[in-house]
Model the fold of this input.
Amino acid sequence: MAAMAQLLIPVAFYISFLYLSMNSIVVIVDSAASVPFTPGDSYLIDCGSSATSNLHNGKTFKSDKQSASYLSTKSDLQVAVPNGDVPSPIYLTARIFVEESTYVFRMVRPGWHWIRLHFFPVDNPEFDLTHSVFSVETDDVVLLHSFSITNKTQWAMKEYLLNVTTEHLTLKFSPLKNSAAFINAIEVVSAPDSLITDVGTSLVPVAEFSGLSTHSYQTVYRLNMGGATITPNNDTLGRTWDPDLPFLMARGLAKTVSVSPSIITYPDGVSPLIAPNLVYASATEMADARVTNPNFNVTWRFDIDPAFGYLLRLHFCDIVSKSLNDLYFNVYINGKMAISGLDLSTLTTDLAVPYYKDIVANASALSEKLMIQIGPFKEDTGSVNAILNGLEVLKMSNSVASLDGEFGVDGTKLSSSGTSRKTVAAVGFAMMFGAFVGLGAMVIKWYKRPQDWERRNSFSSWLLPLHAGHSSFMSGSKNSGGSQKSGYGNLYSSTLGLGRYFSFAELQEATKNFDEKEVIGVGGFGNVYLGTIDDGTLVAVKRGNPQSEQGITEFQTEIQMLSKLRHRHLVSLIGYCDENSEMILVYEYMKNGPLRDHLYGKNLPPLSWKQRLEVSIGAARGLHYLHTGAAQGIIHRDVKTTNILLDENLIAKMSDFGLSKNAPTMEQTHVSTAVKGSFGYLDPEYFRRQQLTDKSDVYSFGVVLFEVLCARPAINPALPREQVNLAEWAMQWKRKGLLDKVIDPTLIGVINPESMKKFAEAAEKCLADYGVDRPSMGDVLWNLEYALQLQEASSQAKMDEENRAAAEAATAAAAAPTAAVPLPTANNEPAAEVHAITEDSGTAMFAKQLTEINGR
Ligand SMILES: *[C@@H]1O[C@H](CO)[C@@H](O)[C@H](O)[C@H]1NC(C)=O
Ligand SMILES: *[C@@H]1O[C@H](CO)[C@@H](O)[C@H](O)[C@H]1NC(C)=O
Done:
């Protein structure tokens, strides 16, 4: 029973994690101001940690292990140190990535979100993280570009404010220069919409500035003038406010003033969430202000990156005057008048009432330094003084949506005039490589903007031949694989993006001159050969048919796609060859071939239910990544069991992206659309409306799930009419609640009914008539993981039961030694059994399939 209890805790945790924490409500109550705020989304992740971290401040950071579906990475490493000079234990563990890796967060509430990234180069034997150089991006915004921490005792927290309107937020970590990326903790938390209003004031000229809500922001400085540090515990929104002293010039000219926070009264229209009352309860003012005729400014100076514009939020609150209408002063930014004769009394109508002003300092108004000054208003009015209570310096994203460097996520470069242009003009391999990320992203966008098809045609003409200047570039990568650190040997060879260049002769040798006997697959694109390269590494060599125009496009798009996509559940591209107008792609060899062969038709031993769940989960992860991960918005378009390949460890990987790249062009009719995708898997809505969405893949995946459960083809024309189409047939039985009558007989008695129910529900939802009613791949993934948990829980329970029985039997046997009781076995692997039936050639050609179907 003890084992049982132990088991139930993680399962319960898992369920509550999936279904509660996604929508759970965390009310943070500010101890000082008592302003509650309920973030719609709240993720606190302690990366690389194996357990939940409960911090002193009451915050709970979950381990990113506990939330595996966030993280998609091909290769990573967890490291930890016992202690260090860091502000929080979340810095003591890190996750290290040697390849592009992503965290995906499901967003419940669109709007402003804090993203806080915590970095500390944890000392570890594998990687010297002080040599790490990496980038961090969301799908739209570059957060960090060529980021590094070179001091091993330094920690860093980077805070961003982004308006996230998509269903998922992706954080992609990309190591550069053969190094590694790392991350210690991540916070993604909703921020109140009132935090950023659309309108501010520009500095040069002083005028209304609108469009603030269209930018993304990075907090560069956040200061509590005249006061102490305000820690995240004392700010409802978890912000840190630092003292201003280190930035103050000519300190003798300034002094601090503070009052009890309780006297601060927020006016209508200023939310206490803008800044806690502790900020307004202290200020820096002019020293000796009340001497006759003081005439100087109080000045703060800050280092900034002048390539960006900044939103400067100045917080004021008159805590110095004895009466109203006694304080008027000027505010200057980099020597320019920003506010002349600021009259807080008129603006707030009372003392101790907060007021803030947003000033946009565009790059042209700035130099390497940002200088903020406050000084007396020249007119002879009342007391001569000037104050500042708080200051936030927020870097604004530039026109290519970057907060660091001059490139956007799609490789678009910021032009010198500050407006964006695409880096697509140059021809030649080195350029090509640099621009490749951009091209990939553009290809993806064509799905959404089919009118761009003409542009694609215009640059596809220079896309081939590719290898004009390949030699030095690629040969450098050729042998780099073997000499790397243990465990990560081959990972570096692919970091150049396009992979390795193969000469035609090399591939002739690898495939015994494309020997018919080496053919392991036939597709619409051409044949796939088994090849041997280097020291005996097996590869799959896909040789295109150069005559086919369709093929050329698919070749180009596939190479673009694959070079951009790296994921444990996507088949990896090793390299390519385009010599003599050949179109050859070289992939990792997937020893166990297509999933379909393990389900029926090939007389292979049947997969257990757990293996089927794991394979389905793997494939779902791959698709989820395609839809939402590093390269957002890619639609596979040909999801089927022959395109899910299994490696030697039965890890499932999605393959065949040849179809996924082609944006529907203007002339293409439903006929050509029908050619894309495979009969039996086609989304009926796509068929009806010719509109391709990622939900079309979800539909096809639903068919795959039923194929996995029932072990029969999606279409089997040999069967009676009502059974020919698996999706229809399985759904009929599902609706009747009698699905167990049609499942793979080898699963009967082994499959946990609850697990099957969850699985079938997921499949059913995928097959909804309308795309909008279908779940996202992320939801499907979670349901499948749940189904796996249910299955494992039941096997564990069964095993415990059997062990208990065995123990009792053993006791009994000890009492009566002659009664030998055989130990029951927990191995429920069913015997091999063959069902099936028709062969599907795997080709994408609709017509060909029809012929085959008719031919049987
Ligand atoms: C976030 O962006 C969306 C789309 O641009 C916009 O409709 C929405 O108003 C923005 N939200 C806020 C709080 O500014
Ligand atoms: C305060 O600073 C502004 C801008 O740098 C300058 O024009 C002004 O003369 C200064 N005032 C005094 C009293 O020094």
